[in-house]
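User: As part of a screening pipeline, I want to sanity-check one entry by hand. Below is the sequence and the SMILES for S-adenosylmethionine. Please return the complex as structure tokens so I can compare it with the automated output.
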Amino acid sequence: MKQGLVLDKVVLLGRTLDEYRRYFALDLPGLRGRRVLDVASGVSSFCAEARRSGLQVTAFDAIYELPAEEIECRCAADLNHVTDAIRDLQTYRWDFYESPEKLRRFREQAYRGFLEDYRRMGRTCYVPGRLPELPFRDDEFDLALVSYLLFVYDDQFNYEFHRRSVLEIMRVTSGEARMYPTVNFETHRSRWLDRLREDRTLAHLEFEEVRTDFEFLINSNFYLRVRRR
Ligand SMILES: C[S@@+](CC[C@H](N)C(=O)[O-])C[C@H]1O[C@@H](n2cnc3c(N)ncnc32)[C@H](O)[C@@H]1O
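Assistant: Here is the complex for your manual check:
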């Protein structure tokens, strides 16, 4: 019997720059002059906010094929659904967000910030496509981030999807990739992590689980750092 959030599809929820900073332990001033790719960026305001602070960020997501109005309808509905669904679950710690209402404010702030920027910047910053393929050149970015797509949905995306996605992300990234969280919605470390580490087709990559001090979904105080050996 599942204890955590049960989702039959990937939801359209967005985080803010501040949440990304905590998830990935980002040194934002240190990212100046570096090319950052946010994979599965969705309705996060990370790209919009980071660009306003002078960073160079490209956002990639399957939903960027859609007009802003359609994205808005879908993310508003998903936010209602998830805010209600997690209210009584024991799989979250509320130290940071304090209540579902405050959490909802973060998510609304993120998706409104995203929508405004998406309408203004369009495909200059928001590139549509679907993992496990990326429409970018080899080494086009210095840092790639993936928040809330890989590992956490390990019941919806199989091992091969994860393997191919990691390979593709590392093809376009000359520095490192960070993927968060490393647990699934049941708060268990994803079963795909050890398979990735042991996979001979990924022997040129180094995997490190890095502890952070941010935890909302229980056990989500780690991100996965991937680098070339
Ligand atoms: C939970 S949201 C996370 C958004 C953002 N990274 C954040 O943390 O705020 C997951 C995102 O993954 C996107 N997605 C799902 N499958 C995808 C795929 N195969 N390729 C690219 N994006 C995908 C969805 O459209 C959605 O925007």
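Points to compare against the pipeline: The mean pLDDT is 97. The pocket of S-adenosylmethionine is lined by residues 10-15, 40-42, 44, 61-63, 130-131, 147-149 (CB under 6 Å).
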